[in-house]
Amino acid sequence: MTKLLQTIEPILWRDERLHLLDQRVLPHKENWLEFHDSDAVAEAIKTMVVRGAPAIGVTAAYGVVLAAREAWFSAGENWQEAINPPLKRLAASRPTAANLSWAIDRMKTASASLSKYESPEPALLTFAQQIHQEDVKANRTMGQYGADLLDNDSIVLTHCNAGALATAGFGTALGVIRQGFIDGKIEHVYVDETRPWLQGSRLTAWELMQEGIPMTLQADVAAGALMASGQLDWVIVGADRIASNGDTANKIGTYSLAVLAKYHGVKLMVVAPTTTIDWSIDNGSQIPIEQRTGLEVSEIDGRPIAPSEVHVSNPAFDVTPAELIDAIVTESGVVRSPSKENMKQLKSEEEK
User: Fold this and answer.
1) Which one of 240, 247, 318, 326 is the catalytic residue?
2) For the segment 264-273, what is each residue's pLDDT rounded down to a tens digit?
3) Which residues contact 205 (CB under 8 A, 6 or more apart)?
4) Is 240 a catalytic residue?
5) Distance between the two ends of the chain, CA-based, in angstroms?
6) Which residues contact 342 (CB under 8 A, 6 or more apart)?
7) Cβ distance 332 to 352 under 8 Å?
8) pLDDT, tens only, 216-261
């Protein structure tokens, strides 16, 4: 019997504090960290204790709760002014993930309606928990929408980790794969290792093996050969920000996969909640791309693998043009052959 990873929840609020599963040490160690203040939450997001756009958004919402607690104790009835600096630090922790700013803005809107004479923490905690629950529900809806696009016994490739660990539970791209496997739509999954953080080999492989979903791990550079073999049906990935025309920012290497897939006639599916769509930008050229330390490339586990003082480029994300994407799957529906006009139809459904 297939074991569903319903119990994998990388984000927990318990005993009046935030608990995060430290994804930097998986799969060899399961270590939970506790957070009492918002600046520590911002640092956890920045250093990838938690990663994946939906998970970052949920974590940030709880970070706002902790910021509100700090502001109330330090400033009393002036808490609405005191909360702004820590929220700015939270927002700066991972600039590409649209869910981060979305969650903070939603929490700020909620806080504006609260009395300045009472602690805002209880009310904001309720809002954060609502964001948390909405993400899990959206993931399961997306999982079914995406699975319905697959033919029986499909062979698929995924990149990075867009699973339960990257969300509040179940996953986006891996949510489709989970549901597809349950429905008999998926025969086998290929997993890119995903340099330089190895989220595919450390996290995605671990999640799929927990459930007994047949999978094979491969180096990122093997994707082209796999597609040329004619075995592959779909590439299924998540997203960190989607522009209003469907251009999509995802983990570095996704654009290369998209180009290869188009050449080889393999379909590309992007799976993300509507909170990942940035309706304020026209196209992918306006998406900020996070540049991370070169040590992530020149070292592995702190051990140098390149000459010392080598110059390193380490963009965390790249942008895939909409014309290379066959379907964008959200909890509000599916956009086939995404374009500015087709995305407008999704926005209309979302606003109903």
Assistant:
1) 240
2) 999 999 999 9
3) 27, 191, 215, 217
4) yes
5) 39
6) 246, 335, 336
7) no
8) 999 999 999 999 999 999 999 999 999 999 999 999 999 999 999 9
